[in-house]
Pentacotripeptide-repeat region of PRORP domain-containing protein (Setaria viridis), 260 residues
Amino acid sequence: MATPRPHLARLLLHLRRRPRALPLPFSPSSSSAHGPHPGPSLWPPPAPLAPPAGAWGRAFHDGRPRGPLWRSKKLIGKEALFAIQGLKRFKGDEEKQADFVRRHVARLLKADKLAVLGELERQEEVDLAVKMFRIIQKEDWYKPDIYIYKDLIIALAKCKKMEEAMVIWGNMRDENLFPDSQTYAEVIRGFLRYGSPSDAMNIYEDMKKSPDPPEELPFRVLLKGLLPHPLLRNRVKQDFEELFPERHIYDPPEEIFGMR
């Protein structure tokens, strides 16, 4: 039976579109008694083409950042980084440090000065951070900001620089600014670590006068730190139960601290 002409045309088109088998490459080890494998010789393989001059330099780099660096969630420019390094380099020499501040730090822009302050706090260079804060206070654009005070006070409290922290605290209150619960908690924790529960209670009494609504964090910090001082702890516990009646307080056994 003869194949219809349309079917024959489709069959021929299908055969033409089938991929042809590529010839196997010739290698010296593939020779046999009947001679090498038929087909064009592809051994040795051709060398890859070299990229044009400068192509790799444009497409790739060594991974180091270019331009300003990202530090502490703030964009720190080269001048700010130079100022930080200089302040740390001349930390022990007041005369050279004052000259460096006059030549390089004082000429920084507002954003750079704030970035330097934040980076010094992050590196726990709190003495330099206080100096930088005093420089910022003398600027014409300076306005009292609770967040600047908060970051500086928390950095000082974490480094157990409680005397310096209370000086900054007094400056903050003189400018009619009130700290938030996190600042109260960190200062209270700092005094408890410093071994001064009476100063921690003074901060607690100041917190009770704050116009902001009370939060649990400072109370729980005090309740944990005042375990060796049951009389002070009972005062804080009563206030906590009045303000947060639905919350619970863990009271460890009294024999742990020798209280029977």
Notes: Residues 55-74 have pLDDT under 50 and may be disordered.
